[in-house]
Amino acid sequence: MNYLLGLAGNQNCGKTTLFNCLTGSNQHVGNFPGVTVEKKEGRIQKYKTATLVDLPGIYSLSPYTAEEVVTRDFLLKEHPDAIINIVDATNIERNLYLSLQLMELGIPMVIALNMMDEVRASGNVIEVKKLSEKLGIPVVPISASRNEGISELMDTVMRTVTFKKRPERMDFCTGPVHTAIHSIAHIVEVPAKEAGYPVRFAATKLVEGDQPMTAALGLTEGQMHIIAHIVAEMEHELGTDREAALADMRYTYIEQVCAECVIKHQETREQVRSEKIDRILTHKFLGIPIFLGMMLIIFWLTFSVIGGPLQDLLEWGIQEITNGFSHWMVEMHVSDWLRSLLIDGVCAGVGSVLSFLPLIVLLFFFLSLLEDSGYMARVAFVMDKLLRKIGLSGRSFVPMLIGFGCSVPAIMATRTLSSERDRKMTILLTPFMSCSAKLPIYGMITAAFFPDHGALVMIGLYVLGMVVAVLSGLLLKNTVFKGNPVPFVMELPAYRLPAPRSVLLHMWEKAKDFIRKAFTIIFLAAIVVWFLQSFDWSLTMVTDSKNSILASIGLAIAPIFAPLGFNDWRASAALITGLTAKESVVSTLTILNGAVSDAQLSASLQSMFTPLSALSFLVFTILYMPCIAAFAASKRELGSVKSALLTALYQTGAAYVTALIIYQIGSLLLHFI
Questions:
Q1: How far is residue 602's CA from residue 599's CA, in Å, rounded to a whole number?
Q2: 86 within 8 A of 8, measured Cβ to Cβ
Q3: Are strands 3-9 and 82-88 parallel, antiparallel or unpaired?
Q4: Is the pLDDT of residue 366 over 70?
Q5: Distance, CA of 168 to CA of 191 (rounded, Å)
Q6: Alpha carbon distance 618, 442 (integer Å)
Q7: Measured between alpha carbons, how far is 509 from 28 in angstroms, rounded to an integer?
Q8: DSSP string covering 88-132, please?
Q9: CB distance 51 to 42 below 8 Å
Q10: What is the spatial distance between Cα 159 and Cα 438, in angstroms, rounded to a whole number?
């Protein structure tokens, strides 16, 4: 038999580490149907007939975030054969809150009591057998990072699945809450069973005022009136609201269980150490500078010390392969047009993207270290207050920061955001951050027009991108993305050394995902750009790009940019090719101007632009829609081509308006001067 298992737990409880231990490389990554929340599933190594689905980290089964909705829908609609509920043993009281809700589903379940090595090292004790008896489900102590207890866990899970052993106890309530839940259970028993929902779970959710459950059961007006009366009586007797009453009920039972099963002498060494470190890293004034310094070191290592040489080495290798391939085609007398297509189109286009792979892998390596160590949770906490002013929560800062390196991994990183509103807004704003691919453009223009003020111009461009992002956030939060960011609740986990296996698997997944997404788009885009640069409208291959289709398109759209100060067709053509990769702006202008040296290119640019129009061109280049690879990432994360196109149009519109303002105001100032 093939079994479907769900892996559920709070955030930062070691869920990913356990998933990697159980599945190894037998896993693949996708999205849950209809949403952009990441879905990981894989075959369990010891039991090939069992498929494990890694559900998003959540704190409850209330449908407030995309992760909670996904987990809840999976458990209720996919009907897994069992749930593996991973619990952080060092913070057992808080973790068991989700466990009690999962038990109400009536699905066979096993608790994996993780990080038991830390509990033992601190001298604390958890009586596992007694805990299992109190909860009425199997409890297995493990340490996922050390691969301890994993075999015993899976043996217990498979026994539970085989004998379909459901939780023996689901009733943890007393007093008015007990009366309310059981009264409502009698009312909704029939509609709950018809809808395929566990009666106890349905009754509990109705006590909470859960709207999706109310709609799913299709209750009559009379039934709803009775339920409202029962809940009102419960609230009156307890002197609290419905949600607080259920939370108090669960935590009261958890406290009773832990009082009998947990002997806690002191906090674990990891928790004590974390508190000391946090006094510095989350300091009111030092927190942000420390983080920026840390990211500066990461970017320096990624793009210069380690990544730069690796990228150069890969570029050299690609060039050698391309030259060898070109030489072979010459010897084989391959036609000129086919050789040009494969060398100037496919190899050049795909090779330019492939050279970024070391940077992507290295960046995710360092970010995995920060995330798995527990530091990224602190970053979101520190930045939350600042980002909330523009309608985002602290979680959005990490993707936006990654955007200074490359927009593709930055957009991919937005899937960690808990709100669809925040995710979409962050995807829209992230490309305003100046990615590394734009640096050659900055260098080209500043060398030609602002050689004595290069550093000032560069700093100004980076700041301008951030200012436009802030202004866009203020605009969008009151128009398209009305509403407030989701309440920002995040546990600060203890600092821990990342598991090497988990980090390496994370790097592999992201690299594979980047290659699969980017290369299909880039491959097609490279062919299109080559064709447009190489043929005229009669489909005759041209020797001068001035006569190409691309040149004619550039001439057609050049008047659009006249108000921005540049209407040369070569600039328009460069902006078009820049959609494949921003570095293409430099290469296109170099080719179209026939420049063979930096000095010749600077002279040609000075004939195309004035200093003010060159600045306007730079501003537009910073802000207009990102490359095809980033567009493809946006399309995947947003879930539709239409949403990605609207996002790109807004970014390009913002670029046009900003460049227009700078050029027109600059022209007025120059006129009066």
A1: 5
A2: yes
A3: parallel
A4: yes
A5: 24
A6: 7
A7: 8
A8: EGGGHHHHHHHHHHHHTTT--EEEEEE-HHHHHHTT-EE-HHHHH
A9: yes
A10: 57
Residues 492, 349: contact at Cβ < 8 Å? Answer: no
**Do 6 and 80 contact (CB within 8 A), yes or no?**
yes
**Angstrom distance (rounded) from CA 328 to CA 340:** 13
Q: Is the dihedral of CA 274, 275, 278, 282 positive or negative?
A: positive
Q: What is the pLDDT of residue 35?
A: 44
Find the angle CA(614)-CA(616)-CA(620) to the nearest 5 degrees: 115
The pLDDT confidence band at residue 31, using thresholds 50, 70 and 90, is: very low
Q: Does pLDDT of 312 surpass 90?
A: no
Mean pLDDT over residues 507-534, rounded? 72
Rounded to whole angstroms, the Cα distance separating 423 from 432 reads 15
- Work out whether the CA dihedral 611, 612, 617, 618 comes out positive or negative: positive
Work out whether strand 50-54 and strand 125-126 pair parallel, antiparallel, or are unpaired: unpaired
DSSP symbols for 154-207: HHHHHHHHHTT---S------HHHHHHHHHHHHHHHHHHHHHT--HHHHHHHHH
pLDDT reading at 586 higher than 80: no
Closest CA to 102 of 137, 146, 65: 137
Number of H helices, E strands in the chain: 31, 9
* Exposed e or buried b per residue across 373-397, where buried means at least 16 C-beta atoms within 10 angstroms of its C-beta: bbbbbbbbbbbbeebbebbbbbbbb
Q: How much of the chain exceeds pLDDT 90, in percent?
A: 26
For residues 169 and 136, the answer to whether their CB atoms sit within 8 Å is yes
Mean local confidence (pLDDT), 38-60:
85
- The domains located in the chain, with CATH, are 3-162 (3.40.50.300), 175-263 (1.10.287.1770)
Say whether pLDDT at 137 is over 90.
yes
| 8 Å CB contact between 566 and 613 | yes
Residues 6+ apart with CB under 8 A from 145: 14, 17, 115, 496, 499
**In the structure encoding, which two tokens stand for residue 68, read together?**
């909670």
Strand partners, 50: 3
Q: Using the structure block, give the residue that is written with the tokens 């009261």.
A: 252
Mean pLDDT of all residues in 417-440: 80
Nearest to residue 570, comparing CAs of 583, 560, 581, 585? 585
pLDDT of residue 650: 93
- Mean pLDDT along residues 16-28: 77
Which residue in 423, 351, 354, 438 sits closest to 391, CA to CA?
423
Encoding tokens for residue 323? 């030259």
- Written as six digits, the tokens of 98 are 């989700």
Per-residue model confidence (pLDDT) at position 84: 96
Q: For 603-658, how does the pLDDT look when each residue is reduced to its tens digit (9 = 90+)?
A: 888 888 888 999 999 999 989 988 888 888 888 888 888 888 999 999 999 999 99
Distance of CA 58 to the CA centre of its chain: 16
Please give the structure tokens belonging to residue 573. Answer: 């053509």
Residue 34 is predicted with a pLDDT of 44
